[in-house]
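Hi C.,

You asked whether I'd gotten around to modeling the 166-residue construct. I have! Everything is below, sequence then structure, no commentary in between.
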Amino acid sequence: MNLKVNGKLPDGLYEDYNQIPMQNPISLISEISRIINIRILEGEEKNSLFQKSSRLLMIELGRRDGVTQLDLVKSTHMKAPTISVTLQKLEKDGYVERKHDDYDLRAVRVYLTEKGKSYNRFIFKKVIFEEENALNCLSDSESKQLMRLLLKVKENLIDENEKIQY
């Protein structure tokens, strides 16, 4: 279902939003993501971690604790001001702490606190449960094929400068 011609949509392809097909791959990915996010957050109290940007930063810090804010901008594809405001909220709530780098005093590194690590472990279990629940209808080979295809799409979306980070 490739609608692009020379990398862009043909002029006048969709005159209004009612003509856009609802069952396209990206819409389905987005819908699946929303469903899983709702299930993960079910029963959670509303706090700074209720925002998607907060959870994304927590996940990234769980992978690579002690990175700079610039590293977070690059790895999450979020804007620097969004990261700054989100980190302020997370720091205020005790999930992260920021410290100046020992070698480069201009750089500020972000670390998970014990409270942040504990929350990440809790959420990780919920994510694994929902992921297994979502994929249990697929065979191992179908699951591997889906992963290969999604990685191919992601790779297509990341420009050359961003690929260096991965």
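If it helps when you're writing up: The two ends are 28 Å apart (CA to CA).

Thanks,
B.
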